[in-house]
């Protein structure tokens, strides 16, 4: 039970990291 919650939280963190990285890449490209 708890492990499922933990994995969901980890997945959220992972997706947030990806989103932030993507937006940073977009900003970097726009800055060029």
Outline of the structure:
It is built from one helix and no strands. It has 32 residues and is mostly helical.
How would you characterize this protein structure?
By secondary structure, the chain is mainly alpha-helical. It is 94% helix and 0% strand. The chain is rod-shaped, with a radius of gyration of 14 Å. The N and C termini lie far apart (47 Å). The model has no long low-confidence stretch (mean pLDDT 88).
In percent, how much strand structure appears in the residues? under 5%
Order of helices and strands: H
- Overall geometric form: rod-shaped
Terminal CA distance reads 47 Å
Query: Structural class of the helices, strands and pairings?
Result: mainly alpha
The number of strands is 0
Q: What keyword list fits this structure?
A:
94% helix; 32 residues
Task: Present the secondary structure layout.
Layout lengths: L1 H30 L1
